[in-house]
Amino acid sequence: MKKTRPKQYFFKHEQMDFELQCVLGGAYYGSCDAGEVFSTAERIHSGDFESWYTEWYATAERIRKIADECAAAGNNVSARESYLRAASYYALANVMVDGTDDPSRVVPTWKKHIECWKQFCKRLTPPADIVEIPYEDTPMPGYFFKPDNGKGPWATIIFNNGSDGPTAGMWAGGIAAALRRGYAAITFDGPGENEMLWLHNVPFRYDWEKVITPVVDYLIGRGDVDEKRIALSGISQGGYWVPRALAFEHRVAAGIADPGVLSVARTITGKFPKHLMKTFEAGDKEKFDHDMEIGMHFAGKAARQEVRWRMKPYGTDSYYEWVKAAMQFDLEDVVRQIKCPMFIADPENEQFFPGQAQELYEALGCPKTIVKFTAAEGANWHCEPKARSLYDQRMFDWLAAVMPAN
């Protein structure tokens, strides 16, 4: 059967088009306004990273100004909604910053993103708790959201971000839908993510149970969380981190992976020519890095931008060390240790981890459900960017049977 490619609607540049579809999907929960998105996109040239950064940053600044004016006037709802949209647009600007002439803008832009996100959190009803989760030498920033239905103890969902998702993206990535259904929710920046990366230089780690166990400890210690009703949901590369953590952390009642991921390394090394992998397998770091550098020179600006962006959270400038670290992100030796029920999303045209949702499903020995999302439903591509409401309906209906909110 001929493999079909996902349709691109806005840009010939595939990643730009995907990112635009992602932000549009968040419109259902107020993370963007379609008119703001389309007018910004019209000013961007496909494949031009500088215009991408400049235009999204300009839109973010404009909406941030509106938010500040609304806040100063005491218009809380308008301020809250505007801060959320501004946070989304700052984050979009940063996605392509490594392809621009000035990648150093990433941290200042990220700081504006997180400032807007915090202003949004503070203006919710009830306000989100901005917390610190004890973790080794550097506490992880967390955001705990309470449903407007009493004082608990609540069934609670931990929303685990992906490899490069902004903190604000987790609102449309599950938190808003959870609150509507009576669940409490928490999201956090783990090693290699957002604040832990940009401010503290803490890189990814493969043994994610060392990250989730402190989060579960924190939740149980609050006193308003039902310790028997804690679920763990992961989006994008979180589809690896969630099952990895659940293989060891058995206090969690249910796991969700969108999409299912069995091996992160495969999505990296699967694009390398065989001779390059032979060099890696021989342990010749110097030659591997040299050959990769030559390959990147000829691969083009788009490929160089993507590789630089993907390498940052691993905390290394060496291609060899990057691949070596990614090789550890593999579930085959631990997947059978998972005991809780698992929900696995399997979107058509999955471009980063193709086929892996089915592989993870087949490898699991716990109660399990796999759900297909198709192009005919408008729900294809990685993490169903255009159909978050459909995803939420299916996932939360499954969760209601496994771990009800009330």
What does this structure look like?
The chain has 406 residues and is of the alpha/beta class. It has three domains: 11-123, acylaminoacyl peptidase (de novo design (two linked rop proteins), Up-down Bundle), CATH 1.20.1440; 127-264 and 329-400, 3-Layer(aba) Sandwich (Rossmann fold), CATH 3.40.50; 265-326, no CATH class. Helix content is 47%, strand content 13%. It has an eight-stranded mixed sheet with strand order 1-2-4-3-5-6-7-8, with helices on both faces. β5, α9 (238-246) and β6 form a beta-alpha-beta unit. α3 runs antiparallel to α4 (76-95), α6 (169-180) crosses α16 and α11 packs antiparallel against α12. The protein starts with 13 loop residues before the first helix and ends with a helix. The relative contact order is 0.11.
- Number of separate strands: 8
Order of the strands making up the biggest sheet: 1-2-4-3-5-6-7-8
Separation, N- and C-terminal Cα atoms: 46 Å
Strand content: 5-15%
Low-confidence stretches: none
Name the CATH superfamily classification of the largest domain.
Answer: Alpha/Beta hydrolase fold, catalytic domain
Number of helices: 16
Helix/strand order: HHHHHEEEHEHHEHEHHHHHEHEH
The top level CATH class name of the largest domain: Alpha Beta
Radius of gyration using CA atoms only: 20 Å
Q: Could you report the average pLDDT, rounded to the nearest whole number? A: 95
Q: How many domains make up the coordinates?
A: 3
Percent helix range:
40-55%
Structural class: alpha/beta
What form results from the Cα inertia axes? globular
